[in-house]
Amino acid sequence: MRTNSLKRKLVAGQRVCGVLVEFHNPELVELFGHLGYDFVFLDGQHCGLNVEVARELIRAADVTGMTSIVRVPRNDASVILEYLDAGAGGIIVPNITSRAETEAAVAAMRYPPVGIRGGFGRSRAANYGITQTQVEYFTKMNDEVLFVPLIEDQSALPHLPTICSTPGVDIVVIGPGDMALSMGIPGGWKDPRVQAAVEQIRAAAAAAGKPSMIVALDPADGQALYAQGFRLLIVGATNLLANSARGFLKELGRT
Questions:
Q1: Domain of 77: which CATH number?
Q2: Dihedral angle, C-alpha 186, 171, 169, 10, nearest 10 °
Q3: Tens digits of per-residue pLDDT, 158-174?
Q4: Global pTM exceeds 0.90
Q5: How many domains does the chain have?
């Protein structure tokens, strides 16, 4: 297990920015790492990412020292295990709505005695058992891995204090799009009711001493989110590439 650079930056109180890479291309992940992004968000829920492909994307992130965080498709210990053994530096578990669900995910992330993760000291994450003993790896992995519950449904709102204060939670990520859907406001990302829920989640995480993560729509939005108190921003690779490519054509007078 490599030292988790993102965890070190958060402990130091830094603001960070990561990129959601929707395309399964290791070179693209590596490029963003060289550009200076702090972490890569790999999506196993919506982007069809399986463990075999994730392994190569995680490897590309490791080349540049960028932390990889994988959103798994569901809160399932066997699924979480596979992505961690592939070398993910953190796991985002979708649609967390209760303390019990949070505790189950925390347990799946860590080895006994603090969790229930199955032991395998020869995985890619363990450097195939070459550079340390199993005991050393198990101990280091428990310290380095990041657990990130995703709050994206209004049913979670009454339970925020207990979710955010669960031992083992490192970061709280907010999904405004799905939150809007759960509130019956399709596409209502910026609706005041949705934004009130977003701020409620951020404040609950801050009260529990946990940093919050959210998508930034553009640089101005990102600056406003930093000012609001968010410490981790996510930007989509598709948006970055499309905006740059569209802007280039516009400057050429082609649009």
A1: 3.20.20.60
A2: 180
A3: 999 999 999 999 999 99
A4: yes
A5: 1
Pick the catalytic residue from 24, 34, 46, 159.
46
pLDDT computed for residue 1 by the predictor: 59
Whether the pLDDT of residue 233 is over 80: the answer is yes
Compute the distance between CA of residue 77 and CA of residue 197 in angstroms, rounded to an integer: 29
The gap from C-alpha 118 to its chain's centroid, in whole angstroms, comes to 22
Say what the pLDDT of residue 209 is.
Answer: 97
Active site annotation includes 159: no
Which residue segment(s) compose the domain that 28 sits in? Answer: 5-251
Q: Which long-range contacts (CB under 8 A, 24 or more apart) does 34-40 make?
A: 34/64, 37/66, 38/5, 38/6, 38/9, 38/66, 38/67, 39/6, 39/66, 39/67, 39/68, 39/69, 39/89, 39/90, 39/232, 40/66, 40/67, 40/68, 40/69
